[in-house]
Amino acid sequence: MRKSSAVLLLLVLLAACGDSGVQPLPPIVTPAPSRPPAPTTPPADSAGALKLELEAVASGFDNPTFIANAGDGSGRLFVVEQAGTIRTTDGQLFLDIRERVNDGGNEQGLLGLAFAPDFATSGVFYVNYTATNDDSVTSRFRLTGAGEAGDQQSEEVLLRIEDPAANHNGGMLAFGPDGYLYIGLGDGGAANDQFRNGQNRRTLWGKLLRIDVSAPTGYTVPADNPFSDDATRSEIWALGLRNPWRFSFDRATGDLYIGDVGQNRFEWVHYQPAADSGGHNYGWPIVEGSTCRGNSACDTTGLTLPIAEYSHDGGGCSVIGGYVYRGARYPALVGTYVFADYCLGTIWTTQRAESGWVTTEQLDKDLLITSFGEDEQGEIYVAGQNDGTIYHLTVID
Predict the structure, then answer these.
(1) What residues does each domain of the chain span?
(2) Per the count of CB atoms within 10 A, which of 88, 98, 224, 270 is most buried?
(3) pLDDT tens digits along 33-50
(4) What are the distances in angstroms from CA 194 to CA 282, 290, 291, 303?
(5) Chain mean position to CA 237
(6) Does domain 58-396 have CATH number 3.40.50.2300?
(7) Mean pLDDT across the stretch 155-166?
(8) Residue 338: which H helix or E strand, with range?
């Protein structure tokens, strides 16, 4: 993500006077402020708008960065807080590793959470965080003996990567339909891919990784990962990413969607169909979105360009990748991918049509959206950073 100085000031003020207790809320519909829409580049036959709204379901979170369900039939929603804690929406503390986490930078902290597909029986889950020495760490944890919370003493570090700068850390974790763990890592920080990581196949920065964590300890690299040459790290599933802050798999089709945060001009979303064998080069820093960087032409041969993008002209700053809606409550929303912009609070949908991908602005809120999440039924939730609230995305008849 990227934040302006005005946003930073707002966060400081909120931290000084905010509510520290997590509180479940009765459903409330928040009013939409009047604000000019963000410029987008949808196809000409853009789909009709839906009447979306946000209903608050829990409040009192401190800089929420992610929302997840455990897939264990409990119905619980887990909220990741940047400082190093995970809480449920009913206020229960699930994990506290604050003493191991550095959240001093805007894009540092506890960033990702994924529950093992067999969590209901294994009690295993995974997190990504910025360590106190600034390394990016992906670790395996287990439940305590009582089985209600994570055991902070059970940590097994799977990946520890030296971080050259404080930003562009990525940190998203998700299990794919193949049962493998996918890890999103940004280009390592600073600006303009200063460390030349995006196209460097010898580093894990600027990549989407795919690893097998099915063994009780450690990890292995799946035999069908796309790169096996000595010049490429075998964990790499895709390269050319700037900061894939949030990505997700369509729970019905297995298709992959990646929200990749841009530099100065554009924000964008990538797509990979489930049957694809990986190995895509998404182009950073050759292109920003689908546009060549600088004033000269560039060779885009072999690059996979985005399915949706928008410019910064209207105040956008950081795309927040979301989910394809697969819940049962709102049939009109089924099959559409939902994403947002952090600075604007704008929510869009995009969906494949015969003419191409159709992107539509759906909602505009006075909200710093840091992440989306899904519950076990496929309902979509939104994390608000400026108010510490978790919202349910709804369709109004």
Answers:
(1) 58-396
(2) 270
(3) 233 333 344 333 334 689
(4) 18, 20, 19, 21
(5) 17
(6) no
(7) 97
(8) strand 337-341
